[in-house]
Amino acid sequence: MSGQDDDYREFVRSRAAPLHRTAYLLCGDWHLADDLVQETMAKAFRHWRKVQRADSPDAYVKRILINEANRHWGRHRTTPPPTDLPARATVVPDLANGVVDRDVLLHALLSLPARQRATIVLRYLDGMSERETATVLNCGEGTVKSQTSRALRTLKSLLSQEELSL
Amino acid sequence: MTPSAERRLSDALHEIAATQPFVPDADAIERRSRRLRQRMTTVRIAGAAVAVVAVVTAATVVLNTLGSGHQPAIHATHGVTARQSLAQLIASLPTAPKVTGDATLTVEDVGILSNGQEGQNWELDLDDGTFYTGSSHAELQDHVARHRKEAGITFVREVAAAKYAATGDLATARDQMADAQVKPSDPNKISTSNDIGEIDTQIWQNGWFALTARAGDAVVRMGVLRLLSTLPEVIITDTRTAGRRTITLTYPDLGSDRDPPGSTRLTHILVIDAATGVPVTTDREEVEGGSSVSSINVEISRVTVADVAAGKF
Question: If residue A149 lies in a helix (H) or strand (E), which one and from where to where?
């Protein structure tokens, strides 16, 4: 095995799990998340030299993932995304010291327009800064701010409708 | 939302996403990559063949309307054939005869699935708004025959915006189409964004949704084409597809200066029949460094629901 292959395998080993979590929150389906990550990593393999040369390999690969997720929604348009939440642990800490049904929160997240959803996931799951998020989403920081603001307002509204005030 | 609430949102998202272990199969990913490379080679060869068939009579016609009250005035670098073709098409639609069929079938190559098989996505948009899907020819037929439709009527606001755009004020219609996926009660409208590119992208995407969902409605086709003609990014060419005259509208992802080197950009190509405006194909193409690296092609045709239910499609 070449050193390049070793590097790639190490990259996959170390990045696949967090990428899988990101994919899941983008699509709401673990099996689809598997597929998105495999496709993303396959593309990263095809362009491995570019990935290695990128200023931020993580941002480069995350952008491939976002594109794959967008292409999926482009194909399936506004068909409500499925969710396959496991039965256990149905609640998570809510946004106001109470609890939010995780199914409700995930559905609210998935009801956001794709770009807003991606913005929320990159900012609040992956902990990316506005600048990093702008790089991944191929937009300006101002757009990230506005998309984040819109998404948070919508989430708050949706969760309030479920009588889960923030 | 307060900083503490944002922290709780972050915690909640981590909690949701942390429930499923994932162990990547590097061998499977490498196999998938090699198959992907083979597939893209095939796509490029097929794309080159199509390009040879396409007769580009107006090399590049850029619509430039934003400074002129959103009227579909088009400035061509040379030749006005493509512009004239689109204008003639739009003008003819109010009196256009009804197109054949009562539904629009789209068949899309999904790519290689995790089981290693090539996947397809089959969708059927009835002219009345009913929507069916299937992962295969047989599954779509089964769903239609059993009336197992998808819930709801698709793209109501996009279609309404398109109908308004057919004869209404284009500036207002642009706002309506840009905001078609924003809840009416949401004060944060896409149309109020300072990013014109964001607005245009949303108009393109929502217009495409309306066009494919109601391809049988000449008013919708007219409105969508009027709207797309307001987008300065769109490149129009006269083309020929499978022997018939077509118009190709290309929406390039222009990217930004913030792109890291080698970033992938997405170009969306929409081919419509030059006589009816009914979509024929769409193609989403990823471009890196000026070269196509992947492409997803969608074939679109008019059919009857009865034929689909009977498997005659």
Answer: helix A141-161
Strand-pairing partners, residue A92, are A100
Distance from CA of B7 to the nearest CA of A (A): 8
Please spell the DSSP secondary structure of A40-60, one letter per residue. HHHHHHHTHHHHHHSS-HHHH
Looking at the complex, does the CB of residue A119 fall below 8 Å from at least one CB of chain B? no
* Contact call for B19 and A89, based on CB within 8 A: yes
For residue A30, give the 3-state DSSP assignment: helix
In this structure, what token pair is assigned to residue A73?
């929604």
**Alpha-helical runs (H) found in A47-140:** 48-53, 57-76, 102-110, 114-120, 130-137
Which stretch, A41-45, B155-159, B167-171, B232-236, has highest mean pLDDT?
Answer: B167-171
**Structural tokens at position B150:** 């998808």
Residues of B in contact with A76 (CB under 8 A): 121, 133
Q: How far is CA B2 from CA A121, A166, B248, in A?
A: 18, 10, 48
- A127 contacts: CB under 8 Å, gap ≥ 6: B10
**Spacing of C-alpha A13 from chain mean position:** 19
Predicted confidence (pLDDT) at residue B238 exceeds the cutoff of 60: yes
Share of chain B above pLDDT 90, in %: 33
Give B296's strand partners.
Answer: B284
The pTM for the full model equals 0.55
Put simply, whether A49 touches B (Cβ < 8 Å) is no
Its sign, for the CA torsion B57, B60, B65, B67, is negative
| pLDDT confidence tier of residue B176, bands split at 50, 70 and 90 | very high
Please report, for residues B63, B77, B248, the alpha-carbon distance to residue B59 in angstroms, rounded to integers and kept in the order given. 13, 8, 11
The two three-digit tokens of residue B71, written as one number = 């009227």
Q: Which residue has the higher pLDDT, B193 or B305?
A: B305
